[in-house]
Design brief:
This protein has eight helices and no strands. The protein is mainly α. It has one domain. It starts with a helix and ends with a helix.
Length: about 150
């Protein structure tokens, strides 16, 4: 749950850096999602499907948000992946960085829900679509997501 949250935050940070947007850029990122096309949309689709839906289900954003709230800033700060992105994550301390991750997840929740709904995405549909690329995945969902992350 932390991994998908951090990948989403990295997408927001990369968007801001590439577009020269100062500040936290979360609102700018969410606005831009309506215009995401080609490679950018493909990146978000992979994040939603492979990092989100397959391991955590279609409600992965709310599940991730709940988990983060339970963990809190101090526990998140101890996470190895969080430590790796901490230098580029906006905020001056763990509490502000935690707040940025939480706000980022909350901000994309509607877009993610609409994307999932409009494409009628679910674990079975995604894994079924991937079965042409990786034979023998039936019953091995625990192993699927790490292959593409």
């Amino acid at each position: 749950m932390i991994d998908v949250s951090l990948k989403l935050i990295l997408e927001i940070i990369a968007f801001c850096k590439l577009n020269g947007i100062p500040g936290d850029g979360i609102d700018d990122f969410v606005e831009s999602l309506a215009d995401y096309r080609h490679e950018a949309l493909m990146r978000m689709a992979m994040l939603v499907c492979i990092d989100g839906i397959v391991p955590l289900g279609p409600d992965f954003v709310s599940t991730s948000m709940s988990s983060l709230q339970r963990l809190g800033a101090s526990s998140l700060e101890e996470n190895k992946r969080f430590q790796q992105v901490q230098p580029i994550n906006p905020g001056s301390d763990a509490k502000e960085k935690f707040a940025y991750v939480s706000r980022g997840l909350d901000a994309v929740q509607d877009w993610v829900g609409s994307f999932i709904s409009s494409k009628d995405l679910g674990v079975d549909k995604i894994v079924g679509s991937l079965s042409g690329f990786a034979d023998g995945m039936d019953g091995k969902l625990d192993y699927v997501a790490p292959l593409w992350t």
